[in-house]
Amino acid sequence: MQDTSWVPLFPEGASSFAWEVDALYFYLIAVSAFFAIIVVAAVFYFFIKYREREKFATPPEIHGSIPLELFWSFVPFVISMTIFLGGAIVYYNQYKIPEDTMEIFVVGKQWMWKVQHGTGQREINELHVPVGRKVKLTMTTEDVLHDFYIPAFRTKADVVPGRYTSLWFEATKPGKYRLFCAEYCGLNHSGMGGWVYVMEQRDFDNWLAGNLSNQTPVQQGQDLFTNKLGCASCHAGGQNQRGAILEGIFGKEVKLVGGQTVIADEEYIRNSILNPAGQVVEGYQPIMPTFKGQVTEEQLVALVAYIKSLSGQSGTTAAPMTPATDGTTAAPANTAGAGK
Ligand code: HEC
Ligand SMILES: [Cu+2]
């Protein structure tokens, strides 16, 4: 049973884990209803059984019962453990991001969602995704806390200023689904939403192809890196290299001055750009200037995508894309199979 759309109060379920969330929810309701009924029935039963029959009667003394104590300790323990385990499994499936995802960037802003695809296609308050493909959203916000919520996919995640958060899903049914901001974020919070369009892979490819003149995030990042922000003057390699080597660092451990090591993930790269003095790479002088206030969230996303691509991590299409050097875009290939 994977379809709960017949339940009047439930939104349609359209992701690979929607039914798991619903099943857990039904289970919680069933457990609660079961005990509510027992309690209410016992209340009425005792009402009648122990009603006042004569004034000032002394009831018989009750002594403890070990088997009874064991029984009502053990049974609730087992039940609460099934709730815990069910919750943990559903949580794990949602928050562990699988490897082979198509990455899409999302920047929240009072009061809109700005989306950019790996091919450069941009959209606002709309998100087009292919059906049967694992999609990862890497999200941040320009201003306050927001929360990206797609009820039909049974998933949501906070979008936090100054950080990247991510969320993944695999849509199972083509269609049009609601998208909301689920964190009160000011006057027009209720208007901060839109639609998710789940399309067949072929339609999605056509939709993407409708806008190939755009730069991809990687190309945009490269442009910022070499031209607009001048990162290349220190990081380009060769004899004049004064900055740390960026090729191949993504996902690897970086040794910092002071002996600490960190994993070079999106967050780390972002911090290295905004607050370089905070984590200085071993063997280098802290000469990198801060770029705080000079780059927008979208430019940061592009820089991160570019630095990732230097490690052979495109993360933007399922097909491995060679780091963009000549301004061409790898066409999104349909490689992912539909489901497990
Ligand atoms: C003045 C030279 C200079 C400029 C300009 C510069 N950097 Fe750096 N960068 C460095 C140095 C030196 C380090 C190593 C010391 C440190 O971590 O601060 C570094 C470190 C980094 C790191 C961490 C690397 C690692 O191996 O962990 C990243 C990422 C980075 N820079 C990105 C950028 C980006 C993006 C820009 C442009 C927006 C930029 N840098 C501009 C000199 C520079
Ligand atoms: Cu919001």
Poorly predicted parts: 315-340
Structural class: alpha+beta
CATH fold-type name of the largest domain: Immunoglobulin-like
Bound molecules: heme C, copper (II) ion
- In spatial order, strands of the major sheet run 3-2-1-5-8
Shape: elongated
Number of helices: 7
Distance between the termini: 17 Å
The overall strand count is: 12
Q: At the fourth CATH level, what is the homologous superfamily of the largest domain?
A: Cupredoxins -  blue copper proteins
The domain count comes to 3
What's the CATH architecture of the largest domain? Sandwich
CATH class bucket of the largest domain: Mainly Beta
Roughly how much helix do the residues carry, as a percent range? 25-40%
Describe this structure in words.
There is one protein chain. The chain has 340 residues and is an alpha+beta fold. The protein has 3 domains: 1-50 and 64-96; 102-209, Sandwich (Immunoglobulin-like), CATH 2.60.40; 217-309, Cytochrome Bc1 Complex, Chain D, domain 2 (Orthogonal Bundle), CATH 1.10.760.10. The chain is 32% helix and 19% strand. The chain contains 7 helices and 12 strands. It has helices spanning 18-49, 66-95, 201-209, 217-228, 232-235, 266-274, 297-309; strands spanning 102-109, 112-117, 122-124, 126-130, 134-141, 146-150, 155-159, 165-170, 175-181, 193-199, 253-255, 261-263. The strands form 3 sheets. A 5-stranded mixed beta sheet has the order 3-2-1-5-8, with helices on one face. Strand 11 and strand 12 (261-263) form a beta hairpin. Helix 1 (18-49) packs antiparallel against helix 2 (66-95), helix 4 (217-228) packs across helix 7 (297-309) and helix 6 (266-274) packs across helix 7 (297-309). It is elongated. The two termini are 17 Å apart. The model is unreliable at 315-340 (pLDDT under 50). It binds heme C and copper (II) ion.
